[in-house]
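Recap from last week: sequence in, structure out.
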Amino acid sequence: MKRMNAAENTRAFRNPLDILILSVAGHFGSKSKEVERFLKFAVVGLIGAVVDFGTMFILQATILPPVNTLSVAAATTIAFIAAILSNFTWNRLWTYPDSRSRSMRRQLAIFTFISVIGWLARTTWISLAYSPLGTFLMPYALPVIHIIRPTYMPSDHAAAKLGTFAAMLIGVIVVMFWNFIANRIWTYNDVE
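Predicted structure tokens:
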């Protein structure tokens, strides 16, 4: 494993997960650095998913309830932008601290372009799938909800909310793989 010099060490963000990630990645021999990057990218993606889902939940519970496709698309877009900003920041600081041949502005532009492609695919998927998924899942979710809240009566928008989150979960997983591969090829192609 390569040790970082003092200049590299000051740029890299360190956290307690590094030990676990390096331990797992170390089992992959010559591919260990890419596995380390993917695991860090996945952790950053998980943080981004919390930002994404949290923002979506707050928006749908307050100013953008899922009353139509436009409100669902607007809420998912705002949530996605918040996640992009979080993901870019953490990927630049932690996943790819050694990628500095391009300016931060240029990297953000490429990262955003790649993310927008993922957003378009994800938003199209969610907009088409939220209603049928919610209608399909609600009869299965209701008994589980009644265990926790026996008097729960679903609102008019309950199935739409459930469908939005189910479709979003699928979309997040698919887009994570797209984002990692595309960003590795274009945004952060200056690292070994």
